[in-house]
Amino acid sequence: MYILIVEDNDDLAANIGEYCEEQGDIVDYAGDGLTGLHLAAVNNYDVLVLDLSLPGLDGLSLCERLRLDAGNNVPILMLTARDTLRDRLTGFETGADDYLTKPFSLQELHMRLKALVRRAAGATDHLVVSDLIFDLRTLIVRRGGRRLTLTPTGMRMLELLMRASPAVVRTATVERAIWGDDPPDSEAALRGHIHQLRGIIDKPFPTKLLKTVHGIGYRLADDDAL
What we know:
- The protein has two domains: 2-120, Response regulator (Rossmann fold); 126-225, Arc Repressor Mutant, subunit A (Orthogonal Bundle).
- 41% of the residues lie in helices and 22% in strands.
- The chain has eight helices and twelve strands.
- It has helices at 10-22, 33-42, 59-68, 85-93, 106-120, 152-164, 171-179, 188-201, and strands spanning 2-6, 26-30, 47-51, 76-80, 98-101, 126-129, 132-135, 140-143, 146-148, 169-170, 210-213, 217-220.
- The strands form three sheets. It has a five-stranded parallel beta sheet, sandwiched between helices. It has a four-stranded antiparallel beta sheet with strand order 6-7-8-9, with helices on one face. Strands 10-12-11 form a three-stranded antiparallel beta sheet.
- Helix 6 packs across helix 8 (188-201).
- InterPro entries: CheY-like_superfamily, OmpR/PhoB-type_DNA-bd, Sig_transdc_resp-reg_C-effctor, Sig_transdc_resp-reg_receiver, WalR-like, WH-like_DNA-bd_sf.
- Keywords: DNA-binding, Phosphoprotein, Transcription, Transcription regulation, Two-component regulatory system.
- Residues 2-117 form the Response regulatory domain.
């Protein structure tokens, strides 16, 4: 999962993020509401963890603006110490999909996030872009009926790009999917992985799906079908 944590308590945000990363997730952080709104608007997150008491822009206002102004339907789990029924109802009314009160179990939080992502994706076990199909249960990738063999790194990159399709995935996000918080100093390593992935999923086929958006990142899409 690609997760945004909007939380002004640095220790709590770090604890949540470290746990999620141990489960194989990619995590971004925002310590205030305005930064969180900006990140949520420009990136393709699978799910948001949103605190209510935030500097700059509170969580309820962030959620409302994201839903109404930006038309963004990313699943949102509100995380807060406010535990009255009125607080929960207000959270749902502004667009939250789930509500978890502090203190909480990291394991429960992560299971709730996975459930939100499954629900948003229609509980699909397959990612499909044009004639490219990725079976997430068996990790089998096929294009045009032909089975393709990818490395574990190639699979991580492909899943990220297919989930975001047809949107652009920024270079830093792809690097984080491969190397976590310790990317190489040069972009040459990433270009090497992209070249290898392109050779597997595109080279044998007439329609090219993997595009480089110079200076920004990469996208996977059949532009002729858009």
